[in-house]
Write a structure and sequence with these properties.
The protein is 25% helix and 25% strand. The protein is an alpha/beta fold. The protein binds S-adenosyl-L-homocysteine.
Length: 215
């Protein structure tokens, strides 16, 4: 089935998101051995025991992130670099971090070949990011976290949105959307300035602390 049609049937409606999904060749992000399945709606194995997410989940998370062209976006969990490539079509700047150097290096190369010049790939631990990275309008976590660390929420600008799969390793997680409220909002004291919604059940590989020792 045609890739866009498949995503539309699954309920993706945002034209800009559908266009971005069409513009990024997923076959360039999967392992050669799985290339025949590049446009099937399945997650596929990549190096370092990780996975490239299912296209529907990539499109859904991108849609739910509510991107604007001027946004500065952080992704935690570069993996193949596919999600970062999709984000780069819809935002001004994407910083993506990966704890495996091998995956980060390969993703950087692919993104460079595709001239995605507004993406920066860093080998770094999403739980311990350098302060210099600054604040982001949008944050997308693509690995399962048992809870979202305060330090990550504090990376959001006012009205900033963070998406993360929250739940136990190996089980089902709930995709959570966390929005940073304006500082003078009345609900501030109760919610510490963040509004949280549950979106969808998802399954991601776990977020692990530290840069991977294995390459
Ligand atoms: N977004 C990716 C798929 C993500 S798979 C894509 O489009 O292909 C999840 C990735 O998160 C894995 O590559 C894993 O190594 C990485 N990861 C897990 N914990 C991390 C952490 N603390 N910091 C950075 N990356 C992490």
């Amino acid at each position: 089935m045609n890739f866009q049609l498949l995503l539309r049937r699954r309920g993706i409606v945002d034209h800009a998101v559908l266009k971005a999904m069409d513009e990024v060749p997923r076959e360039d992000f999967v392992e050669p051995i799985t290339r025949d399945d590049a446009y099937a709606d399945v997650a596929l194995p990549i190096a370092c025991g990780q996975t490239i997410s299912q296209p529907f989940v990539v499109a859904y998370m991108t849609e739910q992130l509510q991107l604007r062209r001027y946004h500065r976006v952080l992704e935690i969990g570069t993996g193949s670099g596919y999600q970062a490539a999709v984000l780069s079509h819809l935002a001004a700047e994407v910083v993506t971090v990966e704890r495996y150097r091998t995956l980060a290096d390969r993703a950087r190369l692919r993104l460079r070949r595709l001239a995605r010049d507004n993406v920066e790939v860093l080998t770094a631990d999403g739980f311990d990011l350098p302060d210099e990275l600054g604040l982001f309008d949008r944050v997308m976590v693509t690995a399962a976290m048992e809870e979202v660390p305060e330090s990550l929420k504090e990376r959001l600008t006012k009205d900033g949105v963070l998406l993360a799969p929250v739940g136990p390793d190996g089980g089902v997680q709930v995709l959570m959307r966390i929005r940073r409220r304006a500082p003078d909002s009345a609900a501030d004291s109760a919610s510490q300035g963040f509004a949280t919604e549950e979106l969808l059940e998802v399954r991601f590989v776990p977020a692990l602390k530290g840069i991977a020792r294995q390459l």
